[in-house]
């Protein structure tokens, strides 16, 4: 399968205002949302498109409260790069399963659970991926 | 959602007061860039106790840097390293560093076989060097880290000359300075 490097490529640009950045975020979200069945077919996932959409929604919800214009622009660029790499099949199946679909938030632990483990400080949780 | 809006309102309120320590706290609640990015000169208030710091336009880099969120729970130290005592030169002591304090008894263990010290603290060997204190503070603010600036030590360079070795000083122990 040949890939065209320029497929789905977009030039980097800055948004003019909050309205435009909102519009760009929504259009990017729609692109992700519509391509969920294609992602499932492309990587032969056992997950349903609804689950993929749920993971995509969670990614966007994580950055919902970001209001800094420059940060939003960078997040848009990164997400679109991710989209391009996913749709051009430049990723492996494990990238999609582990990076795209895996929940990124750590499970919430109660105070007592942390106390029994002997570490009740948030700062000492190791940041290595895959360790919960 | 109402809690979020309350936080935003309170942070906006705090930013208007302009106290530097509170503004630092408010920044962690809201990622909104300040509307007025102009550098207004610091003016003393009526009481003379507080000086209004100009609000600076700092990019919120912690959402795009990919650094772990746990770093936000730790305070960093901004300091100027002391001279290396094993060498007579004072190289690299003009720089400013950021490093993280060692966590007290957390995330560390001893290897049961060899006794090696292991750690889950991923920044224990990390330090970042800057040319100036302002650069370091700017970086810490950008990353959303709590920081404190350690007071720099005043370097005392004693005056020395050769003739001082032979000056008569009553009631004092004479120290021959050879270096």
From TrEMBL, chain A:
Main location per the UniProt record: mitochondrion
Any Pfam family hit: Complex1_LYR
Record's keyword annotation contains Transport: yes
Keywords: Electron transport, Membrane, Mitochondrion, Mitochondrion inner membrane, Respiratory chain, Transport
Domain Complex 1 LYR protein span(s) in chain numbering: 23-84
Membrane topology, as annotated: Peripheral membrane protein
Cellular localisation: Mitochondrion inner membrane
An annotated GO BP: response to oxidative stress
A single Gene Ontology CC term: respiratory chain complex I
Record-stated family: Belongs to the complex I LYR family.
Protein name: Complex 1 LYR protein domain-containing protein
Organism encoding this protein: Panaeolus cyanescens
Automatic annotation (TrEMBL), chain B:
Main location: mitochondrion
Cellular component GO terms held in the UniProt record: mitochondrial inner membrane
Entry keyword Chaperone: no
BP terms from Gene Ontology: electron transport chain
InterPro entries named in the record: NADH_UbQ_FeS_4_mit-like, NDUFS4-like_sf
Taxonomic superkingdom: Eukaryota
Topology relative to the membrane: Peripheral membrane protein
Keyword terms: Electron transport, Membrane, Mitochondrion, Mitochondrion inner membrane, Respiratory chain, Transit peptide, Transport
Pfam families reported for this sequence: NDUS4
Subcellular localization(s) per the UniProt record: Mitochondrion inner membrane
Its biological purpose: Accessory subunit of the mitochondrial membrane respiratory chain NADH dehydrogenase (Complex I), that is believed not to be involved in catalysis. Complex I functions in the transfer of electrons from NADH to the respiratory chain. The immediate electron acceptor for the enzyme is believed to be ubiquinone.
Protein family per UniProt: Belongs to the complex I NDUFS4 subunit family.
Protein name, as recorded: NADH dehydrogenase [ubiquinone] iron-sulfur protein 4, mitochondrial
Organism in which the protein naturally occurs: Panaeolus cyanescens
Native organism taxonomy: Eukaryota, Fungi, Dikarya, Basidiomycota, Agaricomycotina
């Amino acid at each position: 399968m040949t890939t065209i490097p320029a497929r789905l490529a977009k030039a980097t640009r800055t948004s003019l205002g909050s309205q435009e950045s909102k519009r760009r975020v929504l259009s990017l979200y729609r692109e992700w949302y519509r391509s969920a069945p294609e992602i499932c077919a492309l990587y032969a996932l056992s997950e349903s498109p609804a689950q993929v959409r749920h993971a995509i929604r969670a990614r966007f919800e994580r950055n919902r409260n970001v209001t800094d214009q420059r940060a939003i622009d960078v997040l848009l660029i990164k997400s679109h790069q991710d989209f391009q790499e996913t749709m051009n099949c430049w990723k492996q199946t494990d990238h999609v399963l582990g990076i795209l679909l895996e929940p990124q938030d750590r499970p919430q632990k109660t105070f007592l659970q942390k106390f029994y483990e002997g570490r009740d400080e948030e700062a000492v949780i190791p940041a290595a991926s895959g360790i919960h | 959602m109402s809690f979020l809006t309350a936080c935003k309102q309170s942070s906006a309120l705090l930013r208007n007061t302009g106290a530097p320590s509170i503004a630092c706290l408010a920044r962690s609640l809201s990622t909104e860039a300040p509307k007025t990015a102009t550098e207004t000169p610091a003016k003393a208030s009526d009481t003379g106790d507080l000086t209004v710091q100009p609000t600076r336009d700092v990019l919120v880099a912690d959402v795009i840097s990919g650094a772990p969120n746990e770093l936000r729970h730790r305070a960093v130290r901004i300091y100027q390293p002391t001279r290396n005592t094993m060498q007579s030169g004072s190289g690299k002591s003009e720089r400013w560093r950021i490093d993280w304090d060692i966590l007290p008894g957390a995330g560390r263990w001893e290897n049961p076989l060899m006794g090696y010290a292991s750690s889950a603290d991923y920044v224990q060997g990390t330090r970042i060097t800057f040319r100036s204190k302002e650069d370091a503070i700017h970086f810490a603010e950008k990353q959303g880290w709590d920081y404190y600036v350690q007071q720099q030590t005043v370097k005392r360079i004693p005056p020395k000359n050769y003739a001082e070795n032979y000056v008569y000083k009553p009631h004092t122990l004479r120290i021959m300075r050879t270096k």
